[in-house]
């Protein structure tokens, strides 16, 4: 006897294959969704970690900015103090030399042939103004001033003829540079070491 299978096997196999493909596709899709979710979760954790690190770095930067501002202020204060110290040292040097220079000028000025009308000291330079009988007296006075150990570089700024007490006299102006001799520096250094 011949049996005829009337069941649609091909169709059943096609449906089973389609179900299998659909379930495989669903599994792949779910796996993809899980992978995307895991990746998103991982990236979110990285972003939040980076954001907290940026916040911490900004706070640390703020703290360092305050320290840098304090350092800049201290450097400005240091420069100001150094400039004040330089001025004080210059004043001490000038103070020591002023007395000697006044004594030298008074000692070297010939009182019978000339007199000084003004003496201006600014730092290590002196400007002398006065009256003399003639140009030779002025030239000799300049040479005499150059012999002083406290005065150097004597220059004639101007001379002019001036009437004074019925006589024609020479009015003059000189500029001089001041120097502190080496031997005067040493006692100050010695006294400074003795005081310490």
Summarize the helix and strand pattern as letters: HEEHEEH
Going by helix content, strand content and strand pairing, the class is: alpha+beta
Number of beta-strand segments: 4
Whole-number mean pLDDT = 83
* Neighbour order of strands in the largest sheet: 1-2-4-3
Largest sheet: 4 strands, antiparallel
Low-confidence stretches: 184-196
- What overall geometry do the principal axes of the alpha carbons give? rod-shaped
β content, as a range? 15-25%
Count of separate DSSP helical elements: 3
- Distance from first to last alpha carbon: 137 Å
Radius of gyration: 50 Å
Helical amount = 55-70%
Give a concise summary.
This protein is α+β, with helices and mostly antiparallel strands. The protein has helices at 9-108, 135-146, 182-195; strands at residues 114-122, 125-132, 151-164, 167-178.
Structural notes for this entry:
The protein has 196 residues and is α+β, with helices and mostly antiparallel strands. The protein is 64% helix and 22% strand. It is built from three helices and four strands. The chain has helices at 9-108, 135-146, 182-195; strands at 114-122, 125-132, 151-164, 167-178. A four-stranded antiparallel beta sheet has the order 1-2-4-3. The radius of gyration is 50 Å and the shape is rod-shaped. Residues 184-196 have low confidence and may be disordered.
Could you outline the blueprint of secondary structure elements for this entry?
Blueprint: H1 9-108, E1 114-122, E2 125-132, H2 135-146, E3 151-164, E4 167-178, H3 182-195
């Amino acid at each position: 006897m011949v049996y005829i299978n009337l069941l649609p096997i091909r169709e059943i196999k096609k449906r089973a294959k389609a179900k299998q493909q659909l379930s495989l596709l669903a599994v792949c899709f779910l796996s993809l969704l899980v992978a995307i979710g895991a990746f998103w979760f991982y990236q979110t954790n990285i972003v939040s970690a980076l954001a907290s690190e940026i916040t911490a770095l900004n706070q640390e930067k703020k703290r360092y900015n305050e320290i840098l501002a304090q350092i800049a202020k201290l450097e400005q204060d240091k420069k100001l103090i150094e400039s004040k110290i330089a001025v004080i040292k210059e004043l001490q040097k000038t103070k020591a030399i002023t007395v000697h220079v006044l004594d030298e000028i008074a000692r070297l000025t010939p009182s019978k042939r000339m007199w000084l009308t003004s003496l201006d000291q600014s730092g290590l330079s002196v400007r002398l103004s006065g009256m003399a009988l003639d140009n030779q007296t002025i030239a000799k006075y300049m040479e005499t001033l150059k012999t002083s150990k406290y005065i150097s570089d004597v220059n004639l700024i101007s001379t002019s003829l001036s009437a004074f007490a019925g006589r024609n006299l020479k009015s003059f102006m000189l500029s001089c540079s001041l120097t502190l001799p080496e031997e005067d520096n040493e006692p100050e250094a010695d006294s400074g070491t003795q005081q310490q």
